[in-house]
Specification:
Largest sheet: none
Mean pLDDT: 89
Order of helices and strands: HH
Number of helices: 2
Helix content: over 70%
Radius of gyration: 37 Å
Length: 88
């Protein structure tokens, strides 16, 4: 093999080694991205569960809250009771 062929072979070997190293690094990055994606999916599921739970709690609170009319009626009843006690 002459010198030119040796130089070309050395360049090709270097290129091949660089390519293999890049492929292995890309594979490692792919694995890490997959792990992060799975973690994000778990976090999203947990947050969705929490938001749903909070939504249900808010709905129950809303059901227990008196309406404006009920609140006004209670205020009138309290006023009547207070007037009745002050007359005694």
């Amino acid at each position: 093999m002459n010198d030119t062929n040796k130089m070309l072979q050395a360049i090709l070997n270097g290129q091949n080694a660089l390519k293999q190293e890049l492929i292995s690094r890309i594979d490692k990055v792919d694995l890490k991205v997959d792990k992060v994606g799975k973690k994000l999916d778990r976090v999203e599921k947990n947050l969705t569960k929490r938001i749903d739970r909070l939504g249900k709690q808010l709905a129950y609170l809303d059901d227990d809250t008196p309406t404006r009319e009920e609140f006004d009626d209670l205020e009138k009843r309290v006023d009547e009771i207070e007037r009745g006690h002050s007359a005694l």
